[in-house]
Amino acid sequence: MKGKEWYQADDVAQEYDSKRFSRGGRLIDHREKQAVLDAVGPVEDKDVLEIACGTGRFTVMLAERGADIVGLDISRAMMQQGREKARRAGVADHVEFLRGDAARLPFPDDHFDAVFAMRFFHLADTPAKFLAEMARVSKDVVFFDTFNDTSARVVYNWLLPMGSRLYGEEEVDGLLSDAGLKLTDATHDFVLPYGLYRKIPNGIAGELRGFDTSVGDTPLGERLASVSYWSASVLTDD
């Protein structure tokens, strides 16, 4: 996986949330959490798996809504941050953090009601293998996001410490088909890149967000969107 060593560093884990989701980054955090909630639906008493759970932003959020959730990640330092969040939120008994390999998930077939991954596929060296494993262990919902190859991400992608894999709609369609998944919904967002939001105060970011969403609602804006959210269901033999 790209940036494996960087991602697992203790100082990266400690500063991850504050660097990405403060200031205008709060808008990104809110949008991503809403995307997850829209995809997985009501989660009370459901078994959910989050792949690449990182510091537990989504893991803890879903546990607070009644899910029994496993957060899988490669970074012990990131998961330690997540465990502390779960403890502070009073949901530690509904969350299990597990270090593991997304290409070989340690769960039986059809084990979870929903499986999702956020901020993961841009780092994935073998996306087909990862998506096939997500589909294998899910009874129904599979959800993930990608960064897009027709967006501003192309311009500044080289500046990232590990680089990113960018996707087009045709490639995602092929990955879904090969994994035995049926696309149920796709939304495209953030014409303005994430990095811009993180650099400015939240108030100014809110004004820019209004412009961003108005442009994003057009055919051109959809094509230039930085990120896409993909919801799919597992195909059955019925």
Automatic annotation (TrEMBL):
<feature type="domain" description="Methyltransferase">
    <location>
        <begin position="48"/>
        <end position="139"/>
    </location>
</feature>
<keyword id="KW-0489">Methyltransferase</keyword>
<dbReference type="GO" id="GO:0008168">
    <property type="term" value="F:methyltransferase activity"/>
</dbReference>
<keyword id="KW-0830">Ubiquinone</keyword>
<protein>
    <submittedName>
        <fullName>Methylase involved in ubiquinone/menaquinone biosynthesis</fullName>
    </submittedName>
</protein>
<dbReference type="InterPro" id="IPR041698">
    <property type="entry name" value="Methyltransf_25"/>
</dbReference>
<keyword id="KW-0808">Transferase</keyword>
<dbReference type="InterPro" id="IPR029063">
    <property type="entry name" value="SAM-dependent_MTases_sf"/>
</dbReference>
<dbReference type="GO" id="GO:0032259">
    <property type="term" value="P:methylation"/>
</dbReference>
<dbReference type="Pfam" id="PF13649">
    <property type="entry name" value="Methyltransf_25"/>
</dbReference>
